[in-house]
Design goal:
376 residues; alpha+beta; two-stranded antiparallel sheet; 8 helices
């Protein structure tokens, strides 16, 4: 049978060709030889702590802007020892203004200046992208921080906020939180994916549930946590002027890496309009800064210091009436903590500072999108 004889001769041919040669593992161009992997890894881990700390400190001081900032993140990825020292050296955004790790997005912004960001809108997909500005130009994208997509669930609207620009599942590890509106689209609730403090319990109801089942993993909360409210005041008389809004938030503590500092339940922003400010103890309360009427231009004006170039009813500046980050707890109504404004058809600026985090500022700005007939 010629086929059997051919296969047999081929087997002997291969066997005789391989005699005298010891089989070796294929070498990978991405990894060192297997015999050196353990030694290389142990040498990095066994580096003297004093020397390691000095190396990471120099990287932290020199690589102060993105994209060079990725070298700091790389140091934290080498090993557990490197990560602990890197986290110890890297200062919080409230002190340095630098956004390094994803956890920085839920820590308060700088105290003495504002972090300047851009929001890009994609109307076709109802998606919004938040970027950290790296240059003064409004056309540069900058460093991607967060993304949000608008979903309509019955009569309500939800904005799902994610670390991934293409994954908006609440079951995903990239899920950060969400913003949910009421029936009229004038009151919004901000939900965080993580507990704002130890012992915090998820909010009840379908609106705060992340999964269809009660629990998937002990490490992943089954529900969301209320951390703030945004409310727009009705304008029933249709008086001229911009929208009026008020925001109540549990603002994060700069000394806490876990998130927020207060353990009190957020109160309803609508009720805060009718009640004395003392009822909002433990909360940071923001309101929009009143614009002035410009007789020559015949329009309402606010000084955005060149960061807003297009007139829009969405433009606003927020100041604090109650600020828990201050020793007295009283806010400075002259200092703008968050400003948002239009610079192009689908481009907006977002500048925020302490006590707000990037996540909270982004959620507040998302509430301004959409038509609010009862408020304009």
């Amino acid at each position: 049978m010629p086929l059997s004889r051919s296969l047999l001769s081929r087997r002997f041919s291969i066997s005789s060709r391989d005699q005298g040669h010891t089989p070796t593992e294929p070498e990978s161009p991405m990894l060192p030889p297997s015999s050196n992997i353990t030694g290389s890894s142990s040498s990095w881990s066994a580096m003297l702590p004093e020397l390691l700390r000095e190396i990471i400190r120099r990287v932290e001081d020199t690589e102060d802007h993105w994209p060079l900032r990725r070298n700091v993140v790389t140091c934290a990825c080498v090993s557990k020892k490197w990560r602990e020292i890197t986290q110890d050296i890297v200062r919080s955004p409230s002190n340095s203004g630098k956004i390094t790790f994803p956890s920085c997005l839920k820590l308060p912004g700088p105290q003495d200046f504002s972090n300047q960001c851009l929001i890009k809108r994609n109307k076709r997909t109802s998606t919004f992208y938040l970027y950290l500005s790296l240059t003064p130009s409004f056309t540069d994208k900058g460093k991607f921080l967060l993304a949000a997509r608008r979903f309509r669930t019955g009569a309500y609207t939800e904005y799902i906020i994610s670390l991934d620009d293409d994954d908006f599942s609440q079951a995903s590890n990239a899920y950060v939180g969400k913003l949910r509106s009421d029936f009229l689209g004038t009151n919004f609730t901000v939900y965080d994916s993580q507990p704002p403090h130890n012992g915090a319990k998820p909010s009840h109801g379908k609106a705060s549930r992340r999964f269809a089942s009660k629990q998937i993993s002990p490490q992943v909360p089954a529900g969301n946590f209320e951390v703030g409210h945004v409310s727009y005041k009705f304008n029933l008389l249709k008086s001229r002027g911009p929208r009026r809004m008020i925001t109540t938030l549990h603002c994060p503590s700069s000394s806490s890496s876990a998130g927020l500092c207060s353990d009190q339940k957020p109160c309803d922003a609508t009720k805060m309009m009718k009640k004395p400010i003392k009822d909002g103890a433990g909360l940071t309360i923001l309101k929009n800064k009143a614009p002035r009427w410009h007789e020559h231009l015949q329009c309402w004006c606010l000084n955005f210091h060149g960061r807003v170039t297009v007139a829009s009813v969405k433009n606003f500046q927020l100041v604090a009436t109650v600020d828990q980050s201050q020793p007295s707890g009283k806010g400075d109504e002259e200092t703008v903590l968050l400003q948002f404004g239009k610079v192009g058809d689908d481009t907006f600026t977002m500048d925020y500072r302490q006590p707000l985090s990037a996540f909270q500022a982004f959620a507040i700005c998302l509430a301004s999108f959409g038509t609010k007939l009862a408020c304009e």
